[in-house]
Every structure is written in C-alpha cells, then in structure tokens.
C-alpha cells in the first residue's frame, strides 16, 4: 500500500497538469469563436449598457485589409491585423475578403461574420468602422492610398519602424494581401439531419487543393498525381514544390482516402445504416472516388443534397461560406470525425470541448474522434 502512494500522487499530478493545459487552450479557442460571432445566440451583440467603454486615442490613419485563403486563415489574418491596428493606434475598416485567390470566393465579411459584434466586442481595443468616411472618397485628389502586402512573419518593430512612418505621407494603407449570416442556413442543415436521427460529421479532407498543396498522392493514378503537381507549380507563392508524398504519409501528414475512411469507420463499429454528413468541399475524383465509402455507408449525405437549389445557389463560388456551414454542422453533430488533423479539425475539436466544459446544451458531445482516428489508420496500413 505504501509503495502505491507515490504512483497515485504521480498520476494525480499529471492529470492536474493535463487538465490545466486543456482548459487554457479551450478558453483561448472559445475567445476566438466568441469574438467572431461563430457561436452564441442568433443575435450575440450585447445591449449597449453591457458594451466595454470605447478606447479613446488619436488615430494615426486608416487601415484597410484584404484577407486571403480559407476560413481559418482569414480568421488568423483578421486577428493579426486587429493587433496591428491596436499597436499603431489606427482606425480599422471592416476587412474585405479576397476574391482573387485560388478559392475564387465571392463572400463578403458580413456574409460570414457578425459585423456589429466584431465592432462592439473590440471597441475597447481599436476603433473599427464599416467603411471609409465620404470625405476620404476617390473624389478627393489629396487622398493617397498606399496598396501593399505586409512582410510575412514580421514582429512589432517592423510595424512600428517601417509601417507607422508611412502614415506621414498616406492617409490610408491597404494591406491588399495579408499573410498568414451563415447561422440560419447552418441550423436548417442541422434540423434536417436531426429529423433523420443521430448523425456523424465526417470531415473528409480529400479535396483537390488539399492534395495539390500537401503533395499527398496516395491512391491516385500517375495522371492525377501529375495534374496536382502542375497545379502546385502554377502558384509561385507556394514554397514547397517538390514533395516526397510517401514520407509525408508515413509521418501522418496526409488525409485519409475515402476508402481508408470507410475501413476505419467499420473497424470503429459504425453500422451500415449510420447517417454520415460529408463536411468538405468537392471530393477529388467525384462520385468515383466516393464509391467505396458510399458502398460501405449508403446513408451518405452532403449539404448539396439537403439544401434547396435556391438556397444552395446563394453559396455558389462562396467557398468560405460553405466551410462555415460545415463548421456549424460539425459542432452540432453527435460524432465528429476528421480524416486529417488540420485547422478545421482543431477548431471544431476546441469548440466542442469548450461547449462540453461549459455545459452548453446547444451542442452534443456524445463522441469526439480526432488524433486516435488518424493513428489507427497509420498503424494498420
């Protein structure tokens, strides 16, 4: 009995450390989610009396930004630029979402994020406006806007010593390529799925851009692998060109194929009649590639099958809004299973864990399968 006491204390100590670290991470994720209105009530904006007092400062100029990339990249970029505006005492204009990148997205900031909540929740940090004042419009020839991308991975010295002095000459600086109202329709999807019973959200990360930029070509034909390689080389800003696909896969850095996903789902005990929602964009190879998964689980659905054509048309060429829909459904599913441990998986995992920790009744936390799912497949193949 005496010998077992140190072991008990050791286990208890390790558990306490792990719990403390998990809570710290979850609180951080929760703040990000609350900040951008991705969670909460239909109208998360607090009453005026509950708003923090506005920060009073002499503005050094106006900062415009255009965000590029996927949903999580844009969220990170917005957070970075809020910090820059706070550091330099700038007035920030509600961000624009880039419409020229690979994703060819036509979404606006207000299509995805709650604009009023964004402005109000940060009013004690930085002054944010929805658009530039009319006096700074194009008719005024004295107004000069500097269009530029910021230097990647820059620290505060770069912004203080190189960017801030530029406002002596320019009234507005537009970071045209930063580096680094979906709730109702998301709820419609959730209600339709709930009407069919419990469901699994399968984040099947087997899209063309994912495979091309990761260099993962397991299960593809030589022609398909060459097509993806050419696509990667077509984007000069993408740093990794030559990629050893087999090495990345052996390190667990590649998404599972649909066939591998079906094998693991069956191994985990999911029955043939399980309702599976595919939380992803267009799967590379289309229905042909999905056939092994659909054969194993015929009750496979996508948002394109659940939304009315008129509603779905609103989201065409709006990949970020599509991703936001998948995020909402994934957080509300009975089971969430990612086939790749990427940003989306981490964000959903953090949200679900935080919701469970806070006892949020709006989200089910019956099961969460993340890294163990990936580890099983790489021990088996």
TrEMBL record:
A GO-annotated cellular component: membrane
GO biological process: fucose metabolic process
Pfam families, alphabetized: O-FucT
Subcellular localization, as worded in the UniProt entry: Membrane
Transmembrane segments: none
Main subcellular location: membrane
Pathway(s) served: Glycan metabolism
Superkingdom of the organism of origin: Eukaryota
Molecular function (Gene Ontology), one example: glycosyltransferase activity
Annotated membrane topology: Single-pass type II membrane protein
Keywords: Carbohydrate metabolism, Fucose metabolism, Glycoprotein, Glycosyltransferase, Membrane, Signal-anchor, Transferase, Transmembrane, Transmembrane helix
Keyword Glycoprotein among UniProt keywords: yes
UniProt protein name: O-fucosyltransferase family protein
Species annotation: Zea mays
Gene name as annotated: LOC103631769
